[in-house]
Amino acid sequence: MIDLYFFPSPNTWKVAIMLEECGLPYQVRLVDITKDEQLTDEFQAISPNGRVPAIVDLDADGGPQAVFESGAILVYLAEKTGMFLPRSGPGRIAAMEWLFWQMGGLGPMAGQAHHFIRYKAEGNEYAVKRYQAEVARLYGVLDRRLRGREWIAEAYGIADMASWGWVWFHRMHGQSLDDFPDVSRWFFAMASRPAVQRARALAVNRLPDSVQAIFDGPFYQGDADKGAQVSYVQSAHETSASSEAQ
Ligand SMILES: N[C@@H](CCC(=O)N[C@@H](CS)C(=O)NCC(=O)O)C(=O)O
């Protein structure tokens, strides 16, 4: 059993997608970041950076193993299961390259773009322009990478899982998928996977109303011409998420 310290967000979706794809048994421990629950001493004993996601693998050899940082968690779970990351060779190198690209580039830059566009735009035109342009550049890099290939690395895996949740928020960081046709194709292909839908739906009903509005759309609905509709599959873990939070 794995404890997943979770709040619906791009970084935590990565891990939920991986757990769902691998079929590993897990239980959700909701950390409500809108109530600063990530700052408690108890949580920071597991995740010293005070951010979700984190996991505790209760079945690890040698006793319960805590892991924080979404990229490290993805690699840990891939190595534990032997799934979604080749053990060696060019496929592993590509997966690691694009995982680190997401961790050091797309995620942090899109996060800054969200902050300045959504919360602090006034008086910060320079920051809005800088981060929006950098995110556009990164989308261009990903679009070129995906040209003529189905998935980001050699096969579907942790590099895709790492980037998908961030692209879900493309409108919030000022991007249109119409400008990035291969990112768009990849995004919707991944959105159609049942494991992704279950992870995406996890604990969304626990969001405060103000945040819920963001998750209901318009960001996911995508650009008008795509008319993307995903019918979400109820996660088997939804019940434990709800009971944890009470
Ligand atoms: N590099 C970290 C970033 C984690 C992160 O920023 N998590 C956000 C949610 S997506 C969070 O916990 N925010 C709470 C806060 O900012 O206090 C990772 O990938 O795990």
From TrEMBL:
Annotated GST N-terminal domain residues: 1-85
The entry's keywords: Transferase
Source organism, top-level taxon: Bacteria
GO-annotated molecular function: transferase activity
Gene3D superfamilies attached to this UniProt entry: 1.20.1050.10, Glutaredoxin
A Pfam family: GST_N_2
Domain GST C-terminal residue range list: 88-212
Xref: PANTHER family: DISULFIDE-BOND OXIDOREDUCTASE YFCG, GLUTATHIONE S-TRANSFERASE-RELATED
PROSITE patterns linked: GST_CTER (PS50405), GST_NTER (PS50404)
Protein name: Glutathione S-transferase
